[in-house]
Structure formats: structure tokens, C-alpha cells
Amino acid sequence: MEGRRFAELGPVGLELGETLPAVRVAYETWGTPRRGSSGTIDNAVLILHALTGDSHVVGQRRPGQPTPGWWNGLVGPGRALDPAHWFVVASNVLGGCRGTTGPSSPDPDGRAWGSRFPRITIRDQVHVETLLADELGIDQYAAVVGGSMGGMRALEWLVGHPDRVDAALILATSAEATADQIGLQTAQLHAIWQDPAWRGGDYYDGERPTAGLGLARRLAHLSYRAEAELAHRFGRRPQPGEDPFGGGRYAIQSYLDHHADKLVARFDAGSYVALTEAMNSHDIGRGRGGGAAALSTVRASVVVAGIDSDRLYPLHLQAELAEAIGTCERLDVIRSAHGHDGFLIETDEVGRLLRRTLTLSVGQHSRHRARAG
After folding, report:
1. What is the pLDDT of residues 172-191, one digit of tens each?
2. Chain centre to alpha carbon of residue 30
3. Cα–Cα dist 353/371, whole Å
4. What's the CA gap between 68 and 87, in Å, rounded?
5. Across 147-163, average pLDDT
6. Which DSSP symbol is given to 201?
7. Residue in 230, 254, 259, 255 with CA at minimum distance from that of residue 242
8. Quick one: how far is CA 162 from the chain centroid?
């Protein structure tokens, strides 16, 4: 059944010691769950969105959903995730603002959590995703798929919940947040924190910190695209009808303004802060003997891919993943002019990799059944 639905998961304990007294998760599904010979659902695939994504992977705008699907082209008849064969699940992440509990959500007294929303980590987000799987009756996913922040969560599924995943497609991410990523993301946080309307995160009864969120988006978007692409598309050209020497803008400035305005219209600054801090916390090896040791425990079949023009998550980071994960045959490289955003744009290539991942999943599931027998 398509369309956003909600699961009430009750209280959830968090990695850093606090507890959210009630967690609600927004999710969408496509296709029909199928029970195999063991009686468990064997065709479920989990799609994990990136920083400003949500559960609306594919489809049109609709009331309450201001954007079309962010990965249109991957789910549908004849596509890599054909609902005739696969039961596809996507949820809005913990800390988000598209229906899942986050800073803008009401606390038990009915007020927005705001500054009192507890610090969350990538592991907390995955914990909530496992609770949703329980709610849906999914003991094991045939595959988990994610890029960027979604790729971080896919790695946590593989390492933290090895019995619940047959295969995974990991795109444009890393084993841990690097100094470069933390530095850039912290600059985005300061852009929001220094907006007078931020008010320490307690702005929900008044003016929103739109200037700070817009600046954060401008900084982020530059890192999502490739330098050569921006040079080719915009160069030093002025925005049509404007004179940069007379108070007008260059085309690249107009482009960044456009993307800032789009995000400000649909996203919450409190969620941007909570999710960015969660990304800064990402370290697959924390408390597990280091990244290489943690990744060596992966048992699921894994496809790792990076984008050749990605300057935020450069290819060497995916090469490290592919080398450390013993069940990964090789690093796959997506050729794209679009930088980090290539994992969202190059859907034909991602679809090809996803088909291969699902083929590996079928083989992995057959081995599991053989061992069980």
C-alpha cells in the first residue's frame, strides 16, 4: 500500500543514556510482503534516506508531501525494485521532520521538544528502524540500501544487526565521519546556531531561523556538487537579467539561493541540527575495536560503490570499506559529473548495482536456508 503511514513504537532508550518516552515513525511501503517456506517475510528491502530525505522514495507531490520521490526510477514495475517481487520499506529517520519524532514533535506535555530533544546517534536511528521492522513483522531484510547518511545506517545494520540483513548496497559514504566532513558540517551548524531566531532551538512558537538554515544549505550544496560541473554550468556568468556589479547576482549565487529557499520551505532547522550532529558521531568502529575490526565481522553480501567526482565522500573512503568488508568483491565506481549527488541522480547505474545486490541477496538467503536445514 502506497502513502505515508505511522507506527507508534513506545519508549526508546538512546545510546547516550536518555530515553524518548514515545517514538512515532512515518513510513511508506511498496509491494506485498511474501512469506517463505520458514514462514518469515523473505522479500523485504529497506531504503535508507540521506540527510534531508524522507520516506517518500518514489511518487508525486501530494497533500502533506511537498516533494516528489527523491529516488524516482528505482521503485516500480520493471525497475530494480519491482513491487511485484519486492516489499520495499522506507521510513523517515529518528530526529527528522517528515512525520517521525524529532525536535519539532510534541513532547508528553504537547510542546515542541526544541532544545530538550536528546542527542541522538546513527545507532539510535538504526535501533528505531529495527523496531519498525519488528512492527512490520520483518525478521530479516533481503537487502538494505543507502547512500551518504543512509549509507552510514546501512553499515550499522550490517555490523550491529548481522542476523537481520542478507545483503546491502552501500553508496557514497564512509566508515567514520572524517575531519573534513565534521569541519564542514560544523560550519553548517554554526550558521544555524548564530541565527538570532534560533533561540537555542526553542523557536517553534515564533520566527523560524530561516536565514541560518538557508546558509547551512548553501554550504552543504557546494560540497554535494563537483567543481567541474559548477564551472561548466555557471562559470562566472551573471544571472540572466542581473548585473553582479550593480547589486545583481552571478548565476551560481542564484542557484544556491534557489536550493536554500527550497529547503527552508520544507525542512526544520532543529532536525537539520540533530541529524548533522548524528552524522558527526558516525564511527562504525566505536566501541568495537576500530573500523577495520568492526567491518571484518560483516556476514551479509555487500556491494560498495562511490562516485568518481565526489569531493565530500571521495572514492578512497569507499575503497577502504570495500577492502575491509570481506564479503565485498570489489569497489564499484559510478562515473558522474554531479559529485556527491551522483548517487541520487545516476539512477540507471544505481539500479544496475541494486539488481546485483538483490541477486546476491537471493544467494545469501539460499545459503541461510541450507545451513538451517
Report:
1. 999 999 999 999 999 999 99
2. 18
3. 27
4. 20
5. 98
6. G
7. 254
8. 20
- Residue ranges per domain, the chain? 5-178+282-372, 182-277
User: Tell me: the pLDDT tens digits for 12-49?
Assistant: 999 999 999 999 999 999 999 999 888 899 999 999 99
Return the CATH number of 182-277, one of 1.20.1260.10, 1.10.1740.110, 1.20.1250.20, 3.40.1160.10: 1.10.1740.110
pTM over 0.90, yes/no: yes
Pairwise CA distance, residues 94 & 26, whole Å:
10
CA 174 to chain centre: 13
Residue type, position 364, single letter: Q
Phi and psi for 24 in degrees, rounded to 5? -110, 140
Three-state secondary-structure class, residue 256: helix
Query: E-strand spans in the chain?
Result: 5-13, 19-30, 44-48, 87-91, 143-147, 167-171, 301-307, 328-334
Beta-carbon contacts of 17 under 8 Å, excluding residues fewer than 6 positions away, are none
C-alpha cell at 353: 548495482
Q: Which residues contact 354 (CB under 8 A, 6 or more apart)?
A: 74, 80, 81, 143, 145, 169
The one-letter code for the residue type at 181 is Q
Residues classed as catalytic = 148, 310, 340
- Length reported for the chain: 373
In the structure grid, which three cell numbers stand for residue 367, read together? Answer: 545459503
What CATH number has the domain spanning 5-178+282-372? Answer: 3.40.50.1820
Question: What is the DSSP code string of 125-140?
Answer: HHHHHHHHHHHHT-S-
CA distance 35 to 58: 25
